[in-house]
Structures are given as structure tokens and as C-alpha cells.
Amino acid sequence: MMKVLGVDIGGTKIRFGIVDEKGKVYVDERVETTFPLYELLEHHVMRLIESYPEIEAIGIGTAGFVDAKNGKIIYMSETLPGWTGTEVKKQLEKATNLRVEVENDANCAALAEAKFGSGRGYERMVCLTLGTGLGGGIIIDDEILSGGPNGGTGEIGHMILYPNGQKCSCGRNGCYEQYVSGTAIQRRIKEAGLELSPFELFPKASEDPQAAKVVKEFTFDLAVIISTLQAALDMDAVIIGGGVSESASYWMDDLMNQVKPLLLNDLDIELASFGNEAGILGAALLVLPE
Ligand SMILES: [Zn+2]
Asked: Could you read off the pLDDT of 260-269 as tens digits, one per residue?
């Protein structure tokens, strides 16, 4: 069975997984993200392919805007300094003599759900990762909808929900990310005068009206987002993952009630099957056979 290396590059750590065609993870290693980043990546990739010569190809998922066709980082914020402009595919293929593919990490997570997780059986799905930010991945006919001259296709987190709303890291105001990510929920909690973590907020909503209000505003905004995406993409399913989804048992009913009147057609809403390992699985899928 074919085995490949899946790499998930984030702001604090890089995760390496050796994965087979069935999605089985054989080796799973984490290293701290340090800089210069490309040198760190190449060092660990070379070390792993020396130890595991069965690795046949390398898939890489990374934060930032990616030109997936050329495997190049078009833009990444200062979370990963120096990463913008890096020709990851070209350099790493030269170093390893193996095939290398690069994609945005949210797209990789969506691919993992589509092939091995909750998205199985759906031809058209949108994966929303509610974590530090809001990652979006769109799968149409089992393929990631990606690319564009700026690598920006499917950047759902930066669609605008409230014009002139909350300041966003992209320099504009009112993006989706500022209303339904874990960070956004933290802000909402603070603004409501509560001293709770997002994990404490959701169970509290049944007894505390202030907490209930925060949850209601969050589920309403998420419902509007899902409804808008349906009008644009007519997907069969939405898969919700990321840290915020771990509390879904407290807010899913609320979301379903709020989204129902906003939908054009029936839509399945499911929770993601994978946590953080979606990154290495999806990255591996970039280079695994269909
Ligand atoms: Zn934005």
C-alpha cells in the first residue's frame, strides 16, 4: 500500500504524519515552529525520508494563501515570518526527488473530512473550521475548490457579515471570522461583561441569560453564514469542526432552529470527524491516489 508524508504547518507547531491510502497514520511527530521555516521543514522531511524510505510523496498543508498549482506561498501574515513567497514545492522536490504538493490548511481539513470523515458520500460540501480563526474549505465533486491568481478561492472567513463591523486581521471590517471563530466568541464574552472561557460559556447558557444571549448571537451569525454559502454553492452538507465544535452539544439545536427559516433547500449539517489530525490526513491526500 502506498505511504506518503503529510505535513501540517501552523503558527506554533508543525505536525508530520506517515499516512497510507486508507488514512491510517503510522508515524505522528510534532515539532515546534521555528524560523527560518523552510530550512526547518526541509531538515525534518529529509530526516523522516531517511528513516522511512517507504515514503513515496509529500503533501503539505499550511496556513496562508497558497498557489496550489505551483506549490508556492502567495501570502502569509507575520504569524509565519518570511514564509510569503516561498517556493515550497520547487525547493522540496529538488531536495527530496519526490513529488510535493502544497495547499492551504483549511482546504486540507476539508479534503480529510470529504474522503475519510463526516463528508463521505457528499459530492458537494463546505467545511467550516471554527478555531482561532474561521477556516473554510469547499469540496465540489471530490475536489478542493481552490486557486485563483491570489490563492484566495474559498477564503470563507473573509466574506463580510457586518459592513463596518469588527476589525479583521485582513485589514477590513466585519468578516465572518470576527463573529464565529473561537477568538470572536472570546470577544463576545468579554463584551457581555462575563468572565468565562468559551468552553465554560456554552454549558452556562441554560442558567445565565447573559451567556444565553452570547450563544444566541453566535448561532444566529453562523446560521446566516451557512444560508449565504448555500445560496452561492448549493452544497449537500456543511461540516463543522475546530475547537468551538467540541461544545456543539450545547449549541447545535439552537443553530438548527435559527438556520431552518434561512435555507433555500434542505441541507445536512454535521460535526467533523477529525480534530487536529485532519491537517496531516488532508495534506497526505494531496499526494495519495484517488
Ligand atoms: Zn477579514
From this structure: 999 999 999 9
